[in-house]
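User: Hello! I'm new to structural biology and keep hearing that structure can be predicted from sequence alone. Could you demonstrate with Deoxyribodipyrimidine photolyase? Please show me the input and the output so I can see what each looks like.

Assistant: Of course. The first part below is the input, the amino acid sequence of Deoxyribodipyrimidine photolyase. The second part is the output, the predicted structure written as tokens.
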Amino acid sequence: MRTLRLVLGDQLHPRLATLTDLDPGTDTVLMAEVVEEATYVRHHKQKLVLAFAAMRHFAAELRARGVAVDYVALEDAGNAGSFTGEIARAIARHRPDRVVVTEPGEWRVEAMMRDWEERFGVTVEIRDDTRFLCPRPVFARWAEGREALRMETFYRAMRRRTGFLMDGREPVGGRWNFDHDNRRRLPAGQAVPERLRFPPDAVTREVMDLVARRFPDHFGDLDGFAWPVTRAGALRALKHFLDDCLPEFGDYQDAMRAGTPFLYHGLIAPALNLGLLDAEEVCRAAEERWRDGAAPLNAVEGFIRQILGWREYVRGLYWALMPDYPETNALGATRDLPWFYWSGETAMACLAECVRDTRIHAHAHHIQRLMVLGNFALLAGLAPAQVEEWFLVVYADAYEWVELPNVHGMALWADGGLLGSKPYAASGAYIDRMSDYCRGCAYDVKAKAGAAACPFNYLYWNFLIENEERLRGNPRLAMPYRTLDRMAPARRDAIVSDATRFLDSLTASEGHPGGERAVDARAPDLFLVDPAG
């Protein structure tokens, strides 16, 4: 039987289900760089380089094992520009008896795949993605009949299912979650580890030239590209994190510091989401560090929770709720995305810092994403679809299955509480407590009102006022609403006035980096950034 085996650009693992029964004598592996996937959103330049370079290295590794690889590069003559077009061409070339694929990460791609068998008259076998620890049917059974699909409940079930950090049926250390121990501000002057970088090799440099030439208007810088593009490199990056960063990761995982974008974070999510690493080996390696006494339990549990808990949970939620999930908008948010999400041109130091990190590295850690970039989007009432597209565009680890639930549900509460029991709304006090961003900001984080006040302060209360009918009954918001009830009418009026003035000053980006250049009205000349990114 001749088999055509399609490997997608985020499935680059040697034990991928597509490849498990491969016969080098009869089978061909198809890999294709297609413009449709590079442009359905205008991905960060570094994300495109990472994907194409990793694909080319993976194809070379397969060939070194004696596997026949039919590799279609982006600029090859005849490239159809889509997965469906390339499957059609490959079927014509190889005349296979069947096509084997592993389920993709995005709903729209699986919809394509389910059309191929009838369209091309050849058997198409779609296999479960065994790189994940919770198969989609297992999540569906867990979710069935539940009123609330909470991550903490799922996480405990997954700990029992996998045995990670378990002592029989109970969690090691007597607690499931050490999150309360993981909220320390980074002390001033504390040195953080120098992060391992991966200078581009010849293949990667060739891809960098390709991306710069073909996608010049996409967001992001290329000069600082330093991501691993092979499994060997990804394993080195994992070891570096475990050895040099994991022991302090727990304490400072929520901290932020200007000019220090990586702190103690893993930086392995791009490799994990590409398939260069898999979830089980990453969790196993971290658990071994705790059992060997090389890392404390609060750090290891916090790290494993990000993968075994959040990563597996949002994937299951995504597939359980698609395709209707992104259509919800529980808070009726409609404001256009401001231009400074692309340019960093804002007098708010925290937002400028996070956008700058994002542009330079295609990376920002989870608190920067949730409590700065996402928090502002929530408080300002930005349209969910525009915010979600931005997050999907700008990060090297962003794929719809992981990005959409995190942004739609957790950051924006657009699903009305399906994912999170309350909106993650916070004033400037949270950012001041967990970072040094406020120290050099043009706004005063201590001021509550007026043009000089930190916009997060009055936007927070304005958010509660605007959404009072929807949110007042939420028990987790009872305290702030009691505070709001004690405010004098004049104070409430000032909050609404400040918020209206500020929000009216924002200029939309028209949804992508090609939008009109604009700044927030308070300090138009503080940040001079090339609008092209």
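User: So the tokens describe the shape?

Assistant: Right, they're a compact way of writing down the 3D structure. Reading them back into a model, for example: Confidence is low (pLDDT under 50) at residues 509-533.
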